[in-house]
Amino acid sequence: MSEEQNKEPKVFKRKATGLVREATLFDTFLFNGAASAFGSMVILFGLYITGLPGGNVIAALPLLLIAFSIGVVYSFLTATMPRSGGDYVFNSRILHPSLAFAFNFALVFLQTLWVGFMLWFIWQTGFGPAFYLIGYQTHNTALQGLGSWVSVPLNSLLLGTILNIVYGFIAISGTKNLLRTVNIVQIITLSTTAIGVGVFAFTPNSTFVNLFNTFIHSSDSSLASSANPYQAVISTAASSGFHIPSLGISLPLLVPLLPFLAGGVMWTFYSAYFAGEIKNANSVKRNLISIIGSATFNLVFMGLMFFFFLNSVGYNFMTSLASAAYSTPAVLPSGFTGGLTWIVTYFFGLAAQNPILGAIIVLGMTFSISSAVMLPVIALQIQRNVFGWSIDRLAPDKFSEVSPKYHTPVFAVIMSVVFYEIALGFEVGLNSINSTLVGGMYAMLILGPALACMLLPGISGIVLPWRRKDLYNASPAKIEIKGFPVIVIFGVISVIWMGILTYEFLAWPVYGLLTYPLFAILAFVPFIFGFGLYWAIRAYRKRQGVDIDLACQEIPPA
Questions:
Q1: Contact assessment for residue 427 and residue 120, using Cβ atoms and an 8 Å cutoff
Q2: Are 184 and 143 in contact (CB under 8 A)?
Q3: d(Cα 407, Cα 415) in Å, to the nearest integer?
């Protein structure tokens, strides 16, 4: 080979990534399920229901099947291109690298903020209240004090930093170790949630009424002197002008519930982001089991949770408490500084009628309620996206260097941990300046990432059979009904779903984006910035003799 050929810039960073396919079907099933922490849906029900026209969540749940469409598309596209990098890989090869990078850059940016949010949120609405509630139930003032200490912003910053570093070391030590961690946390979460659901299944409403009344009578609630605090909650909400949302089953009443309910099922495709490390990722059947299977599991589990919880607690009472907790905060005991989030969590321990069992339920469910189980999942997603950019020479080569010992992109993990820490500091600072802004931030960090990783893959699925016939014809995802590609059908449905989700998020003030329009605008800024950044990087690489367009015509190395 001539000297000139030896100096020719490489299209890809390397011919092989160095990643190892070691993730099993069991790993990806639990990983995907953890990406949608459905245990928090009961909390979100209380937070959102007062601003929505209907509240029949059981009737609304079957409508979530439309959200499964994006999971089907991801299953097919992952089988077509089983590489780490997720939607960036699909969209850059099927649509255009500028669009792929713009949307994926927005995803990485917004998800980095989300990781920072979770590192803070875990202590503020997770372990802080969990320790306090366990201490309250067991009359242990030390645990109550620990719960209050954990919830202090600076202490949350310290604990979040420690957790960030710990997860960083685990991620560096090997993907399999990270997956084991996710498996353990998810199994604990599912087990304790199942116990909690079982407790409510055997707690009739009359029993819960007595438990709640006894609890309030022994507290400093403004309703402590009432003969029937349970009924007094309903009366208090009504006197403040609250009208209990309808239990009707018409679409105008049910569809507005989908934006928060979808959080329990629609994110279960995250295994696609490390597909280069999954055994048999080129199998459509295997992908459907891990993605759609975990979504189905979450949907059924969530349905049981809502059914038994509301059957025991009472729909009228729960919706009235959601209103009264804000209009008349004194109805809650003074120690419950987390408001409705804390009291609903406490109900799981209260219904257990046993301090030890209640503590197990509350502490275990905290992983789901606080999104702690989701944290390593999203962190891995971000790291593999940046890895994919680097392979295509859109990010510094260091980001795709893989440790020969641990088989992980060590530098990418380290840099992500640094940015997570910056995001954590931002979240703590924002909450300290104006805690009401957190609601707008939360809404932005749901809708923004959803658009970033769900819209374009749907479009890619629609055009794949015609725009990239070579890939489609060679793909195991070439499954057709009377000659018509199945992936196109689900691609169309997923795009429709994204339209519905976006409209409903923007239509109802309770979801935050109408209340905080600045966050609605900021959600789209990373897309624009990422698009411009792509062309700047492309021009820079072109001067180096690297043709990024050529790289995106091929599937990245395995």
A1: yes
A2: no
A3: 17
Stated pTM of the model = 0.92
What is the DSSP code string of 477-515?
T--EETTEEHHHHHHHHHHHHHHHHHHHHHH-GGGSTTT
What CATH number does the domain located at 3-551 have?
1.20.1740.10
Q: Where are the beta strands (DSSP E) in 364-505?
A: 480-481, 484-485
Token couple for 144? 């109550």
Q: What is the pLDDT along the chain (558 residues), one digit of tens a residue?
A: 344 334 444 544 545 566 788 899 999 999 999 998 788 888 889 889 999 999 999 999 999 999 999 999 999 999 999 999 999 999 999 999 999 999 999 999 999 999 998 898 888 777 887 888 888 878 888 988 898 888 888 898 999 999 999 999 999 999 999 999 999 999 999 999 999 999 999 999 999 999 999 999 989 999 999 999 999 999 999 999 999 999 999 999 999 999 999 999 999 999 999 999 999 999 999 999 999 999 999 999 999 999 999 999 999 999 999 999 988 999 998 877 777 888 888 898 889 988 888 888 888 888 877 777 888 999 999 999 999 999 999 999 899 999 999 999 999 999 999 999 999 998 888 776 666 666 677 788 888 999 999 999 999 999 999 999 999 999 999 999 999 999 999 999 999 999 999 999 889 988 878 777 888 888 889 999 999 999 999 999 999 888 888 878 888 876
Q: How close are the terminal C-alpha atoms of the chain, in Å?
A: 25
C-alpha neighbours within 13 Å on the C-beta side of residue 95: 22
Our CA dihedral for 175, 180, 181, 184, rounded to 10 degrees, sits at: 160
Contact 412, 19 (CB under 8 A): no
CB contact at 8 A, 431 and 120: yes
Task: Tell me how far apart the alpha carbons of residues 282 and 268 are, in angstroms, rounded to a whole number.
Answer: 18
Question: Do 162 and 173 form a contact (C-beta atoms < 8 A)?
Answer: no
CA distance 116 to 423: 4
* CB atoms closer than 10 angstroms to residue 547: 15
Domain boundaries, the chain: 3-551
